[in-house]
């Protein structure tokens, strides 16, 4: 659905997070509750991805990162991993037209080179076809894990130092973070996890250092635009202090005469 600028959504009147990241959890439990195989939950989860991607755009969220497959998820039963990869390929094939029509740029984080060749091919194609769009970005976290990411970054940084391309004594976050797979992306403002679990499961541990966290019991296949708007409303009620005092971060009140 194209973005409508005419009637503001409720969340647009409050402060909308620029970058929302979501740990999409609960597909398996959604399926089990209905006596269905886990893969049915994943299929429904893909439908939710489409709904929530549109919803985010309609709410004015310019960047959305979705945790779709973790480094640890390879240890699931082979059939489930295969089915998830199949669904990912299907999703990418189906969504390309929509990304172009809605002017959404696709990006990924994670070790993409270890994904099946077919998935990689569709990812590269979609990324190239949407690279020129600047208004909305969808980031898929695939074969992603913060610990792997930081090990890879340390390795790349050490290699750059050895090659004389980086300075050993720099020691700044702005330099080091360029070696993370999120290079060029702003930190998430809000991290949402569905399904009632209250952990981060190796997701954006460094980038989320100052993110607001919202946990909802809703299972991912049941997550709606209203749930996303509720999480944004909760975000807007928080005070982000970044180590400062409340007085320091409060907007200055008008000077008294
Ligand atoms: C999230 O749902 C999808 C992935 C991790 C790929 P789960 O499959 O983890 O669902 P639960 O946690 O078993 O309900
Ligand atoms: C986190 O969910 C990974 C994704 C949503 C892709 P998991 O279901 O794999 O996490 P744990 O195992 O409950 O921590
Ligand atoms: Mg889970």
Structure characterization notes:
With 257 residues, the chain is an alpha/beta fold. The chain has one domain (13-145, 187-236): Decaprenyl diphosphate synthase-like (Undecaprenyl pyrophosphate synthetase, 3-Layer(aba) Sandwich). The protein is 42% helix and 14% strand. Strands 3-4-2-1-5-6 form a six-stranded parallel beta sheet, with helices on both faces. The protein is globular and about 60 Å long. Mean pLDDT is 94; it is low at 1-12. Bound molecules: 3-methylbut-3-enyl trihydrogen diphosphate (IPE) (2 copies) and magnesium ion (MG). Residues 23-25, 67-70, 73, 197, 199, 201 line the site of one 3-methylbut-3-enyl trihydrogen diphosphate. One 3-methylbut-3-enyl trihydrogen diphosphate is lined by residues 24-29, 69, 73, 84, 195.
Show the helix and strand layout.
Blueprint: H1 10-13, E1 19-23, H2 27-32, H3 38-59, E2 63-70, H4 78-102, E3 104-109, H5 117-130, E4 136-144, H6 146-162, H7 173-176, E5 190-193, E6 212-215, H8 225-237, H9 246-249
Parallel strand pairs: 1-2, 1-5, 2-4, 3-4, 5-6
Task: Explain briefly what this protein structure is.
By secondary structure, this protein is α/β, with parallel strands linked by helices. Helix content is 42%, strand content 14%. Strands 3-4-2-1-5-6 form a 6-stranded parallel beta sheet, sandwiched between helices.
């Amino acid at each position: 659905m194209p973005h409508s600028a005419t009637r503001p959504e409720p969340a647009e009147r409050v402060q909308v997070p620029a970058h929302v990241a979501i740990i999409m959890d609960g597909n398996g439990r959604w399926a089990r509750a209905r006596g269905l195989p886990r893969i049915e939950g994943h299929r429904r989860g893909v439908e939710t991805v489409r709904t929530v991607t549109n919803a985010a755009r309609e709410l004015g969220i310019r960047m959305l990162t979705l945790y779709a497959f973790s480094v640890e998820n390879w240890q699931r039963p082979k059939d489930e991993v295969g089915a998830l990869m199949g669904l990912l390929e299907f999703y990418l094939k189906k969504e390309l037209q929509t990304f172009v029509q809605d002017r959404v740029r696709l990006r990924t984080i994670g070790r993409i080179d270890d994904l099946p060749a077919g998935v990689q091919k569709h990812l590269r194609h979609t990324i190239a076809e949407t690279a020129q769009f600047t208004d909305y970005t969808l980031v898929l976290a695939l074969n992603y894990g913060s610990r792997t990411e930081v090990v890879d970054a340390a390795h790349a940084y050490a290699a750059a130092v050895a090659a004389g391309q980086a300075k050993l004594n720099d020691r700044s976050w702005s330099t080091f973070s360029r070696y993370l797979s999120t290079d060029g992306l702003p930190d998430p403002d809000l991290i949402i996890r569905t399904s009632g679990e209250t952990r981060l499961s190796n997701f954006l541990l460094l980038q989320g250092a100052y993110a607001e966290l919202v946990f909802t019991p809703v299972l991912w296949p049941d997550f709606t635009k209203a749930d996303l708007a509720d999480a944004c409303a909760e975000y807007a009620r928080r005070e982000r202090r970044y180590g400062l005092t409340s007085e320091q971060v409060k907007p200055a009140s008008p000077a008294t005469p």
